[in-house]
Specification:
The structure is a homodimer of 146-residue chains.
Chain A (H helix, E strand, L loop, with lengths): L2 H15 L5 H10 L6 H11 L2 E4 L5 E4 L2 H8 L9 E4 L2 E5 L5 H11 L4 E6 L3 E6 L5 H9 L3
Antiparallel strand pairs in A: 1-2, 3-4, 4-6, 5-6
The structure holds a DNA duplex (30 and 30 nucleotides).
Amino acid sequence: MSTKKERLDAICGIIRTKAISNQEELLKELEDSGFSVTQATLSRDIKQLKVAKVHDGNGDYVYRLPETSISKQAQPEGKKKPNIEFSGNLAVVKTRPGYAMGIASDIDTHAPNEILATIAGDDTILVIPRNGVSQEKVIAALSHFI
Amino acid sequence: MSTKKERLDAICGIIRTKAISNQEELLKELEDSGFSVTQATLSRDIKQLKVAKVHDGNGDYVYRLPETSISKQAQPEGKKKPNIEFSGNLAVVKTRPGYAMGIASDIDTHAPNEILATIAGDDTILVIPRNGVSQEKVIAALSHFI
DNA sequence: AGTATTGTTGAATAAATATACAATTGAGGG
DNA sequence: CCCTCAATTGTATATTTATTCAACAATACT
C-alpha cells in the first residue's frame, strides 16, 4: 500500500548497491525503478532514513546508510530471494552468519557440473563457476540450496 | 608551523566537542579560537578531513568525524603501505597474521558501495569488488582500513 | 636569478540540499 | 455527511555547501 515505504526501501537498496553522489542521481535511479518523485521528497526521505553524504577520499561524495539501517537491512525477515551477486564471472552468495560453510559444502557436493569450487567464510560464499557456464545457469544451480 | 594544520586540528577538536550543524557555526567557533577563514576554505577543510554532515534523528544536522580519522587519532601509525595486489578484478590484501578476519569485517561494514564481498583467511583477505568499480576506487576504499 | 610547479586562500558563483507553504488525500469522530 | 487532524507531496524558494577563478606564496628545478 504505502508507496512511500516501498520508495524508502528502494532508496536503501540503491544506496547500498551503487555509489550515488547526489540526489539528482538518486532521482534517476528511482525513476528506473518506477518511482517518480521530486528532489524535495527525496531530501525528506533521506532525512528520514538518516542517510548521510560522506566523502569517499577521491574528491567524490557518496550517500551512505547509517549503521543502524544497515543492520536492519541485513536482517529483514522471511527472505524469498537468494542473495546472489556477480563480480565478473564469480558469484558471491550472502548467507546468515555461520551458514556459509554448510551451504557451500552442499553446493560442492550437488552441483559439480556448473560449479568448479566454492570458498566460504562465515556469511559469504565465493562461487567459482566452470568456464562456459552462464550466470543464469549458475543462479539456477545455486537457487536449490539457498 | 603550518597554520592550516593547526586549523584542521582545531576543526577536529570543535567537531568532537560541540554539536556543529553547519559551516557558518563552525566558522564562528573557529573565530573564537583565533582562526579567521572563509566558508570556502572551511568547505575544503571539511572535505579533506572527510567530516560528514549526518542527521541526528531530531531533524537536526551534526558534523561528525569519520571513524578513520578517529582511529588515526588513536593510533599514530608508522606509515605502512597497504599491501594490495590485483588479480583480474579481484584484490588480495595481506595483513599481519590473525588480523585478516577483523579487517575484512571492517571492510564489509564500511565500504558497501565498492566492495561486494570479502573472504578472509588468517593473514589474507580476498576482496571482490562490484562490477564496474575501478581498481583506483577499490584501493581508495580499502586504504582506510589498512 | 628565473621559471615552473604546487598549495592555499578569498570572492564570487554554481550546485546541491532543505524547507515554507499550499494543496491533496485518507483516517477517524461527531 | 461534514469536519478535523495528520501525513504526503510538489512548487518555489531559501539555505547551505562546493567549486571556479584569480591571486599569492613557497618550493623545486635549471
